[in-house]
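[job 4471] stage=fold_predict status=RUNNING
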Amino acid sequence: HSVREFVDNEVIPIIDQHFKDATFPDELIPQFADMNLLGVNLPEEYGCGGMSHVAYGLVCQELERCDSGIRSFVSVQGSLVMYPIFKFGSEAQRKTYLPKLASGEFMGCFGLTEPDHGSNPGGMVTNFKDKGDHYLLNGAKMWISNAPFADIAVVWAKDESGRIHGLIVERGMEGFSTPTTHNKWSLRASATGELIFDNVKVPKENLLPNKSGLGAPLMCLDSARFGIACGAIGAAMD
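[job 4471] inference complete, writing structure tokens
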């Protein structure tokens, strides 16, 4: 009910203008955080909502009843950024990033899709090499929700043996840029961009240690599908 009232009172009145202007209503982020909508179904010990998958689905249903881009923002932050850090990250990574992502201090994005490898993520060419005290990351990702304003990106890349791993890449790392995608026909109130890695030095402690292989990012997509499916019902209700 609280999410429904928030959508009716705060989001619906402004969303048409944001859709027309192709802008994301970032002034609402503190309210998303206050209502525990960032990481709805992750544990409270990391500052998250601690609610059920069903609760997460109902939240997404209400958000997408208003706008798909708004639901997409919450899905990406919770299911594609916070979830892999919680599930595959070290305890130090969880404590560093999850509370800031839950509070809206940090925004995140998920780098899997590539310019030449959309529905075939296993064909990715983004890669990193072990340089002793750091990894050197090169490649590009495309159609990335939240990329233009993300503070961190959970990026999937191949090591020198071709094994896929997740890396936390932070805004400000030299060689990392996030150009905005313009002239979209849909999800216009969602910020979309590219991720470009040009010899980015990534600290070794930024590798997600607890799972590798294509199954890891696919598990993230599975987690996001709860919200997407429920969101589709919200769009149908509207």
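[job 4471] summary: Helices lie at 2-21, 29-34, 53-66, 68-88, 91-102, 215-237.
[job 4471] exit 0
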